[in-house]
Design goal:
- Helices cover 37% and strands 27% of the residues.
- The protein is an alpha/beta fold and 255 residues long.
- A 6-stranded mixed beta sheet has the order 8-9-10-3-11-12, with helices on both faces. It has a 4-stranded antiparallel beta sheet with strand order 2-1-4-5, with helices on one face.
- α3 (108-118) crosses α4 (124-137).
- The longest helix is centred in the last third of the chain and has 17 residues, at 183-199.
- The protein is globular and about 50 Å long.
- Bound molecules: adenosine-5'-diphosphate and magnesium ion (MG).
- Magnesium ion is lined by residues 44-45, 175.
- Keywords: Amino-acid transport, ATP-binding, Cell membrane, Membrane, Nucleotide-binding, Transport.
Length: 255
């Protein structure tokens, strides 16, 4: 049996008295492409943000490659992880946000070279080579010297994906990467995500409302509702033969 690369074990996340994740159990295997669907407010973004250590949890354990994100057991006691440990864990993951979050005052090329140089210590030459390769992969070789505001939303989001990939993460997280785009620009971004999924090298976790796309590219679809996984399974099963009433209601509303 393969060890899951991501594991949520009875994870509780609260904001004040509002429980967002209620003893969530969730696992992702290495190389798997998992899509999370579900109503607004069901905790989808929170799951990704916890993995990026942008949010703390109140109970349970989150592990990436078998190592807990925040707490390590020493002589049976739980102790908070060090900043160094968190940095190491964060480097395993890349995230693409709905609002592209590019550095506005940097060229496209510099957006891609900055973190590899500052965080990974790559030379300017190596970082530039890596960036150029990635820009070619996302079809933006001719845009390297532009600034984000000179690009379309679809182009900016492809830069966002390339920028995350420049850190060579093992896991890519996408939080509604096409929700902020004009409809005619959605396809070019989905095409890049589809290419990545087809390569089967990365583990991918995608939150999306693009049901057709989820159905085509996912190994597994998870339907989140009220901070729990209401139902999950292979896309063809979940979309054509949902077992739970809540899943049926949701799919009826969005399909
Ligand atoms: P989704 O991505 O599924 O729409 P989220 O994970 O963003 O849902 O949010 C889940 C719930 O947590 C929502 O009810 C939201 O209002 C609440 N929430 C998210 N972030 C915060 C925060 N920083 N402070 C308080 N409540 C929050
Ligand atoms: Mg969200």
């Amino acid at each position: 049996m393969t060890e899951p690369i991501i594991k949520f074990d009875k994870v509780v996340k609260r904001f004040g008295s509002h429980t967002v994740l209620d003893h969530l159990d969730f696992e992702v295997n290495p190389g798997e492409m998992v899509t999370i669907i579900g109503p607004s407010g069901s905790g989808k973004s929170t799951v990704l943000r916890i993995l990026m250590t942008l949010e703390q949890i109140q109970d349970g354990v989150v592990t990436v490659e078998g190592e807990p994100l925040w707490h390590e057991r020493k002589n049976g006691d739980l102790v908070p992880a060090s900043e160094k440990h968190l940095r190491k864990m964060r480097e395993k993951l890349g995230m693409v946000f709905q609002q592209f979050n590019l550095f506005p005052h940097m060229t496209v090329l510099r957006n891609l070279t900055e973190a590899p140089r500052q965080v990974l210590g790559l030379s300017k030459k190596d970082a530039t080579e890596r960036a150029e390769e990635l820009l070619e992969r996302v079809g933006l070789s001719d845009q390297a010297s532009k600034f984000p505001h000179q690009l379309s939303g679809g182009q900016q989001q492809r830069v966002g994906i390339a920028r995350a990939l420049a850190m060579r993460p093992k896991i890519m997280l996408f939080d509604e990467p096409t929700s902020a785009l004009d409809p005619e620009l959605v396809g070019e971004v989905l095409k890049v995500i589809r290419q990545l999924a087809n390569e089967h090298e990365l583990t991918m976790l995608l939150v999306t409302h693009e049901m057709q796309f989820a159905r085509q590219v996912s190994d597994r679809v998870c339907f989140f509702d009220k901070g729990r996984i209401e139902e999950q399974g292979p896309p063809d099963e979940l979309f054509t033969n949902p077992k739970r009433e809540r899943t049926r209601e949701f799919l009826k509303a969005v399909l």
